[in-house]
Amino acid sequence: MNANPMLKALGLSDQDRAVLIHADDIGMCHASLAAYAELAVDGVISSASTMVPCPWFQATTQFCAAHTDLVDMGVHVTLNAEWHSGYRWGPVSTRAPESGLIDEQGYLHHTVEAVEAQAEPAAVHREIVAQLRMALDAGIDVTHMDTHMGTVFYGGFLESYLRAATEAGVLPFMVRKDAAVLQAMGFSQERAEVLAGHIAGLEAQGLPMFDEVSFVPFSSMDAHYDQTVQVLSSLKPGLTYLIIHPSTDTPELRAILPGGWQNRVADYQVFMRQDLRRYLNAEGIHLTGWREIREIAHVASGQV
User: Fold this and answer.
1) d(Cα 93, Cα 125) in Å, to the nearest integer?
2) What digits encode the pLDDT tens for the residues 58-108?
């Protein structure tokens, strides 16, 4: 693909590397909010998004209200509840079985595949709108929307995601990929072609998009800083969305993720380190956030 026009809008060259370091799952549990509260003040992150159906969403809204100068918060559209540890959540718009949004226990389905197979598209649209509306009504200055586990990119739900974002004047997270790359990422040929068509059309309309999505692989807590630096050093020219899942180490977190809590604690610890910020500066990697991107998009569209 051609160079991302967002680079020029950010005052960078086509060969520069820009990264948005994004903290997912805020409000999923207390540990996620506690980590975000520290990272927003002293850490190396750009933005975050909150899970509206989860128990600590209300506390997240209170933090946002008290720290409007620090917060760059979006809505992490949540259509499934994946943990098998007894920790679940349901939709905010309905508990009607005919919606297809809930399982036999009355919670959102465990898997993306179950959502795709059973959820009614109209019910998905209502749920996306309800989650976004709850965040806005709670006073969050919602800078963007993104998707928990990529669920909105499947099953014909993308149109609802984009429509809800457009109607609310909120930027949706999208990645500029063609059909061949999307197929290589695991989408069916039919879905890849539909998704690629949306991407091309939206980019032509000036929607800000990312070139890559990246994660930091986890092997051990001791090695996580070095692995983070390795990921950052391998960034290509363009705009990358680096997703992390920071949480403090609490009994609650360990109960929810008995086999995976270390990954999230390691993200929290590493991205609190100021030597990571110094590394980014030394490497000339530009750190940007959704608020900056939104301001650029508004200027380009004549909204300011």
Assistant:
1) 10
2) 999 999 999 999 999 999 999 999 998 789 999 999 999 999 999 999 999
Q: Is residue 197 part of a domain?
A: no
Q: How far apart are CA 279 and CA 277, in angstroms?
A: 5
C-beta separation of 268 from 21 below 8 A = no
CATH number at residue 139: 3.20.20.370
The DSSP output letter for 211 is S
The answer, as to whether pTM is greater than 0.85, is yes
In terms of residue numbers, what domain contains 35? 5-173+210-301
> What gap in Å lies between CA 246 and CA 244, rounded to an integer?
6
The answer to the question of residue 122 being in a domain is yes
- Choose among 92, 75, 72: nearest CA to 161: 75
Domain count for the chain: 1
**Cα within 13 Å of Cα(144), Cβ side:** 27
- Give how far Cα 221 sits from Cα of 65, 228, 249, 271, Å: 33, 11, 12, 13
Which of 107, 244, 108, 93 shows the shortest CA–CA distance to 164?
93
